[in-house]
Amino acid sequence: MTTTDWIRAGTTGPVDPPALGRLREEAGAYELGLAEHELVALWLLGRVPEAVLPWPLLRAGRAGRGPGPDVREAAFQHPSGVPLAGDVEVHLRASDFVRHGHADDPAYDGLVLHLVWEDDRGTARGTPTGLAGGDFVVTIEVGPALGGDPGRLRELVRLGPSGGEPCEAWAAATQPAEMTATVRAEGRRRLAERAWGAGRLVELNGWDGTWEELLIRALRASAGRRRETDVEQRALAARISAGLADGDGEPEEATPGVPDAAPGRRPRSVLPALDRVARTQRPAAVIEALRQPGGPGRARATELGWNAVLPLLAATAAAYGDRDLAAHVAALVDRWPAPRPYGRTDALARLLRPGGGTPRGGGALYAQGLLHVQDLWCERGGCGVCPLSAAS
Hints:
6-stranded mixed sheet; disordered N terminus; alpha/beta
């Protein structure tokens, strides 16, 4: 059965473009005797023949979720000596890259490899594939190396992973309490970076302006799937700030431990309230203070507190040498509850402990530690040398 016959067989009337595209994909899979997810599995298991790879593979990466590349955070040993890290897109045929619209999609600009079963581009066979940003990505075909036989691919897949991740081996050889403490230490480093950033913002915007900027950023990052306009987020930020100021009791009086801001910008409205609630050393008190009428729910307020309140208070303590405030902030940080799970750290969490998730006593520091490792090491080819690797 030809591709045309296959499409006609599944069509009884007018077909919209997306449906026609799906029929073409089914036809291609039928003709090749192979499904795209099988080729993805071959890659993720590290079973693609080394002979077809442009560089030695350090890490196969993790499966992509939702729209975007099929594989994220793969890493190669580049001839320059610097690991090359990025995404991998997988197709049965090389021409699928353009047909799927990836050539015009900036989400694919981070590709380092285009893996295909068959390069069907005629005279362009074996050449790099163009990306939306103007760069090109190496395209390799696997089929010829396996004699064009899908059965050989399936035999390789049945062998399972070709090797384990270094962090998985490290976690297996480490006591759970030590593993949790190590990850939480990475969370403290991430928060310290945010506090440093807040301090630099203060130099430009003053304390009140920095609070507004951090709160807006935190609202944008925690919006989730609900689409919010900039106007809506700024209105929500204003309600939160106004509620904090209204609950302050003595908005015109200076609070011990809360310094004057930059000249002309005395932080009398919100910072004294944040200072007082921080000195309770109870995360719940801070979270509830952010939950003004018509404001965020508890889960979102928890994220706002971590991303806006704690960095600002830590920056305040550092700027004015307020050791008392620093101790209260440290207690809050240590006790801050874990946020909703982050999808992009799910793979790393599962490598460190069966079932993934946050261990008892891990809290927000554990979740933030995973993000720190992910951003600083996993996405930059640091597998095997990060703080969670056996070789580190």
